[in-house]
Amino acid sequence: MAGRGKNEGLSMGYRIAYRLRLIGLGLFGPAQLGESNDPKRRLEREREDKVAAARAARERREAEEAARRRVA
After folding, report:
1. How many domains does the chain have?
2. Is residue 39, in this structure, part of any structural domain at all?
3. Per-residue pLDDT of the chain (72 residues; tens, 9 = 90+)
4. Residue 5 and residue 57: Cα distance in Å, rounded?
5. Among 62, 18, 59, which Cα is nearest to 26's?
6. Does 55 map to a domain?
7. From start to end residue, where is composition biased (Basic and acidic residues) (predicted)?
8. Running DSSP on this structure, what letter comes out for residue 30?
């Protein structure tokens, strides 16, 4: 099923932009920062949040579809 796995729920455009931002931060970002204000870590947390939201939306849709199938 599409949308499962490492890139779950994320569009190709978002994944490309994420990689470019990550590479840019690696090349041109600050030398060393603590975990709380590290831009690379913040980018990773944003991605984790986006994946979690996409996963929750997919599970909600699947539950609604299953409920509709039981009613019909």
Report:
1. 1
2. yes
3. 345 566 677 888 988 999 999 898 888 877 777 777 778 888 889 999 999 999 999 999 999 998 888 876
4. 15
5. 18
6. yes
7. 37-72
8. -
